[in-house]
Amino acid sequence: MRIDFPITSPRHPRVFVDGPADSPHRYDDGSLCMWYPRDPLERRWVFDDGLMALLGQVAAHLVKEHLWRITGHWPGDEVPHADGVKAA
Questions:
Q1: Does residue 39 or residue 13 have the better pLDDT?
Q2: Phi first, then psi: what are they for 29, rounded to 5°?
């Protein structure tokens, strides 16, 4: 796993992981699409939540990807994706 905290927007990390990249919740650059940016703060990670909370969200996302590969169903909330995400 690699977490990038860009200098231009360090409060909006990009998370990359090894392994299968087929997922309806990955951006074109391979980073994970783990939350909807317009969701209320309690539904997404924010900088003040800390690194452990971010790692927990990464783990939950990877479990959902694993289950999606087995069942073909995403086990969680979804929103329509704009360009830059492989699928909705």
A1: 13
A2: -80, 0
Total domain count, the chain: 1
| Residue 52 parent element (H or E) | helix 51-71
36 touches 24 (CB < 8 A): no
Domain-embedded: residue 77: no
Q: Which residues contact 35 (CB under 8 A, 6 or more apart)?
A: 43, 44, 45, 57
Question: pLDDT tens digit string along 21-58?
Answer: 888 899 989 999 998 878 888 889 999 999 999 999 99
CA atoms of 1 and 34, how far apart (whole Å): 14
Q: Please list the residues that pair with 27 across neighbouring strands.
A: 85
Residue 60 has a CB neighbour count (10 Å cut-off) of 13
